[in-house]
Amino acid sequence: VPDRVILNLTEDARTSMAVTWRTDVSVSRSFVEFAVATHGPQFIESVSRINARTESLTHQSGDEPEISAHYHSAVMTGLVPDTRYVYRVGDDVNWSEWYQFDTAGEAGEPFSFIYFGDAQNNLKSLWSRVVREAHATAPRADFLLHAGDLVNRHDSDHEWGEWFYAGGFIHAQTPSIMTPGNHEYNRQSEL
Length: 191
Prior knowledge:
By secondary structure, this protein is α+β, with helices and mostly antiparallel strands. The chain has helices at 123-137, 157-173, 187-190, and strands spanning 3-8, 17-23, 31-36, 48-51, 53-59, 67-76, 84-90, 99-102, 113-116, 143-147, 176-179. It has three helices and eleven strands, in the order βββββββββαβαβα. It is globular and about 50 Å long.
């Protein structure tokens, strides 16, 4: 089942939106399906589907077990400005839930965002409270801005798993902009 689903802004968030997700290595072909949102399930009748780009990664950090996964990415294009869309990601057998997002309005319209800095530690147990309270306070924020140090150890799949867990569906419905901090870099390469 797809996990670590995250929505990302594109150069023109009025007419396109990017999404990435992870699966196990048995999934070699993945898709994103999307449509204009309706109040009920009628959107299913007008779903568009695009192929995702798939990349493999095998990684091991310290005493963590070796992890092999496929990472998928796709850009939904041809979207209408200031419109709510639904989307899901999957492989024709295993699908995510249907998520929704809003495209940006026209230039000059006001917007809001939530700023996060240095999530880094105690992600599942404590940062989860921060991201959920921020979402409860500003549920209509147009995007999330993460200003580095999302995790403490850049190569810890466990920490990245906690980061995605803490944000849950919020990552999949509110687009993010993430900038790397010093903890997202390999310190060994700097020595």
